[in-house]
Amino acid sequence: MQNNKIPRSDKTLLIACGALARELLALIEVNNFDHMDITCIPASIHNTPKDIPEAMRAKIREHRDDYGRIVALFADCGTGGMLDVVLAEEGVERIHGAHCYEFYTGPSAFAELAEQELGTFYLTDFLAQHFDRLVVRPLKLDSHPELRDAYFGNYRRLIYLSQRIDEDLLRAAKVAADRLMLEFEHVHCGYGELETSLRMQLEGRNGGQENNHLLA
User: Fold this and answer.
1) Per-residue pLDDT in tens (0 to 9) along the chain, 216 residues
2) Using an 8 Å Cβ cutoff, are 35 and 209 in contact?
3) Angle at which helices 21-31 and 194-202 cross, to 10°
């Protein structure tokens, strides 16, 4: 719930990937980052990364006049640098990283995983829980399973980067690996460096305000 006594002009808006929403809200609560609001770009946009930069621009312009500061919690995610071009034009900074997965593993650990096997498909808690909605149906693998080779023929393994210890999510991740015919690995990283990055970006910004709110 939002505390209406706090003017938005005194708060920071985080524009995040929808896949990070649950974890961000948990971190904000645990760390008492009560001066923040969150608005999200739907996670499904990763299926068309060319759309990410302008979606980010639209969010920034929608909320620019309401908040004292805006931070993008979005990696490059396949935009080929175009997201950073838009953010530079709009004067908004972002947490660094080529992929959202780096927010959990940290860049060095992620680079090591990638070096071990370039053909790796990654799942987080969110993607494991919504695998059918975000991967199977948008790629039409449910109606055209033969497309599996076109999309994933160069992949060799699936790594589940878990934030929570949850047997249901672990089973869902294993089912996803079986469906894609990939070797399965599980790496528990919790919130990883997402919390560290938040602190680095937002340290000292808490002016004593209360509460946070996930915007529609």
Assistant:
1) 344 566 778 888 999 988 888 888 888 888 777 788 899 999 888 888 999 999 999 999 999 999 999 999 888 888 989 999 999 999 998 876 667 777 788 888 888 998 999 999 999 998 899 999 989 998 999 999 999 999 999 999 999 999 999 999 999 999 999 999 999 999 999 887 777 767 766 654 443 344 444 443
2) yes
3) 60
- 70 and 23, same structural domain? yes
Are both 64 and 32 inside the same structural domain? yes
* Domain span including residue 177: 107-188
CA angle 128, 132, 134 (to 5 degrees): 80
User: How deeply is 187 buried, as exposed, middle or buried, from its count of CB atoms within 10 A (0-12, 13-18, 19+)?
Assistant: middle
Same domain, 130 and 73: no
pTM of the full predicted structure? 0.73
User: Collapsing DSSP states into helix, strand and coil, what is residue 153?
Assistant: coil
Number of domains composing the chain: 2
In this structure, the chain runs to a length of 216
